[in-house]
Amino acid sequence: MTLKELAERLGLSPTTVSRALNGYPEVNADTRARIVAAAREYGYRANTMARKLATGRSMAIGHVIPLSAHQMINPIFAEFMAGASEIYSSEGYETLLSAVPQANEVQTYRELARRRSVDGLIVHTPRLDDPRVDLLRELGLPFVVHGRSVDIDEDRPVYLDINNRRSFEFATNYLIELGHRRFALLNGIETISFARRRRFGFEQALDAQGLRAPASRMVNMEMTETNAYDVTCAWLREPQPPTAILTSSTISALGVARAVRDAGLELGVDVSLISHDDDLSFMANEGDPPPFTVQRSSVRDAGAKCARMLIDHIAGKKVSSEIWDCEFIEGRSTGPAPKET
Amino acid sequence: MTLKELAERLGLSPTTVSRALNGYPEVNADTRARIVAAAREYGYRANTMARKLATGRSMAIGHVIPLSAHQMINPIFAEFMAGASEIYSSEGYETLLSAVPQANEVQTYRELARRRSVDGLIVHTPRLDDPRVDLLRELGLPFVVHGRSVDIDEDRPVYLDINNRRSFEFATNYLIELGHRRFALLNGIETISFARRRRFGFEQALDAQGLRAPASRMVNMEMTETNAYDVTCAWLREPQPPTAILTSSTISALGVARAVRDAGLELGVDVSLISHDDDLSFMANEGDPPPFTVQRSSVRDAGAKCARMLIDHIAGKKVSSEIWDCEFIEGRSTGPAPKET
DNA sequence: GTGAAAGCGCTAACAT
DNA sequence: ATGTTAGCGCTTTCAC
User: Fold this and answer.
1) Measured between CB atoms, does B233 come within 8 Å of chain A?
2) Residue B26: CB less than 7 A from any atom in strand C
3) Domain spans of chain B?
4) Per the CB 3.0–4.6 Å rule, which of A57, A111, A117, B7 could disulfide with B14?
5) Where are the alpha helices (DSSP H) in B28-130?
6) Taking the complete model, does pTM exceed 0.90, yes or no?
7) Per the UniProt record, which residue ranges are transmembrane (chains A, B) (predicted)?
8) Which of B79, B89, B114 is facing A69, going by the closest CB pair?
9) What is the CATH class of A60-162+300-324?
10) Residue from A296, A250, A289 nearest A273 by CA
């Protein structure tokens, strides 16, 4: 069933039918009602391709993610997509997923732009000196960054970021207040800009109290359980092991927890652990629910927000970047710091 | 740069240029060379929407996945998509992702069909009595099922499945040979057809040796670490605990491993554990690499294969379903069964 | 081997 | 408030 056919059956012109169905105001209410009824009756749906060609808009949002799968396995990514998808479909957008090897990344964006496959893009997990921002600007494609790619001149791209610095500062302060003095930070690789900000927050909080963590206790690694396990084991074998460990993903938190247990120590008594997973954060001792939740500003909400920002951006509306603060949700303590030995 | 513009610059008709660029045979070799050169020079790319409209093909493959995120978090899904994506892009297809609440599933497929948004679909994680197969057939959309939805009359939809029954039979036999007699099965919920086949394989192997697992030792649960931990703890507290546990996901395997350790037992000595994660399977004791790999028939390959099958299917080629057998890759034992007590 | 012309199904000026 | 007319950029008969 095409628009033309529908129009013929109604004895109207395709134009009127199109207008009625697309909610243009200048259509007689009765006519519109008739048209809408007929459309439903015949199960008419506009052919997307025709519409796209005519309007020049693809009504699709692109997500280019590295094929390494590290990204896609990430529960954070899934949550983000869930939030974004909801907005997309409510606004009539489709989701175009490009899983490509990191090496083809630039080429993929170029192709997407040339073929006009998407109206806009979300940039995930910005890296330091990320080429994508400039690239997309050059290509003239609207985009929203989830995170911040640049430190100076932050306001140029539209972005939504979680205040990673502040949440780590906050968490560190919390542990300081509990009496901890020997800290360690198990962080992601610092090419991801999230990771660097987290370290800043951590160092800042320690600094303010005249404390510091030695370089050997601020580790940048790929966030796997095994890595976290190994590093933590090494720390715990040292003569003055850390009593407070901060890390930045659920996965690594599991490794830390295992190492603590295997060292014959108890989590929440001998060692306090705070994990801040990308945007979804909690203080992970054992138990469910976790005894202490840093925030649940919810990646899902972030996904929805980014989607909305992008759609507005595409529509030419003025959108401003946002930085979301983390909230501590449940204040249950993880137990006091151990006595100084 | 449009086709028309390019044609004008070359002093040719759009028709010829189109034919040359699309590899039609009836174009003079020289003309074609000129055209191709010019196209590259000007960076010409055909507008996908126009092409889509003209050909009636959307050049997109749809993946509808439940918003519950359980699916998307799944590393298996990520691997599958990685494999499929590679084929898609090499064949000029794009990936359309629809993350929708399970409740809107049917509606989503209908919409996709009516709007002609995709040329075909991959059906993930078929359930028992899955409505999608009949629905898609009704809608006339080509599709390939990853897994099998129906037991009887299996050959109707095009599918690619891993032989789950056989891999569990195999794994169970392996444990029987090691001397185990007390078995337990930690399985997914049986509305997922994978899960049921796994149980069949497990029971079949036991049966053949005159063994059986009591109903209380064949549990269907959502595959979370916590669930697995709890169930295993309960089992291990019983007077005659199982010495061999089979489970069907990496996540649940972690829970089992933790429970075994917490019970003061040793994995690979007191309890043998085999995990078969969706399609990516291994025998999980502690350590890396796992001491015993059931298979790595590789979900990625499966993704690529499904993609290829679907594309052929769309092209009208005859495709037949496949069932892939698992292979045991490394035969290192997990240690003997404990003495009967 | 090449081109002219007619769509694909829709939207958007521009009438009326 | 409705219709007429042109496209959108490409593919594809059908002539030559």
Assistant:
1) no
2) yes
3) 3-46, 60-162+300-324, 164-297
4) B7
5) 29-42, 48-55, 70-73, 75-90, 105-114
6) no
7) none
8) B79
9) alpha beta
10) A250
pLDDT digits (tens, 9 = 90+) for A173-217: 888 888 889 999 999 888 777 788 899 999 999 999 999 999 999
CA distances to A137, A147, B262 from B219, rounded to whole Å, are 54, 42, 21
For residue B270, give Cα distances in angstroms to A259, B45, B246, B266: 22, 63, 14, 5
- Indicate yes or no: CB of B45 within 8 angstroms of CB of A226: no
In the stretch 47-86 of chain A, residues with CB closer than 8 A to chain B read: 47-50, 52-53, 58, 60, 63, 67, 69, 72-73, 75, 77-79, 81-82, 85-86
CA nearest to B1 within chain A: A114
Whether A60-162+300-324 shares its CATH topology with A164-297 is answered: yes
Chain-chain contact of A95 with B100 (C-beta, under 8 angstroms): no
The tokens for B127 are: 């359930």
Query: Does residue A173 sit at the B interface (CB-CB below 8 Å)?
Result: no
Question: Measured from the CB, is B315 under 7 Å from any atom of strand D?
Answer: no
Position A67 pLDDT exceeds 80: no
pLDDT above 50 (res B73): yes
CA A103, CA A109: separation in Å to the nearest integer?
12
Question: Could you check: is the Cβ of residue B19 within 7 Å of any atom of nucleic acid strand C?
Answer: yes
Taking only residues 104 to 163 of chain B, the set having a beta carbon closer than 8 angstroms to any beta carbon of chain A reads 111, 114-117
Task: Quote the pLDDT of residue B332.
Answer: 41
Asked if residue B3 keeps its beta carbon closer than 7 A to nucleic acid strand D, the reply is: yes
CA B72 → CA A75, A182, A316, B66, distances in Å?
A: 8, 38, 32, 8
CA angle (B222 as vertex; B219, B228 as ends), nearest 5 = 60
Q: Which CATH number fits domain A164-297: 3.30.300.70, 3.40.50.1110, 3.40.50.2300, 3.20.20.70?
A: 3.40.50.2300
* pLDDT tens digit sequence for A306-326: 999 999 999 888 898 888 876
Look at residue A148 and tell me whether its pLDDT is greater than 90: no
- Calculate mean pLDDT across residues B55-66: 90
Query: For B94, which of A50, A69, A117 is closest by C-beta distance?
Result: A117
H/E element holding B100?
strand B94-100
Is residue B244 classed exposed, middle or buried when 0-12, 13-18 and 19+ CB atoms within 10 A define those classes?
buried
Q: Is the CB of B57 under 7 A from strand C?
A: no
Mean pLDDT, chain B, integer: 82
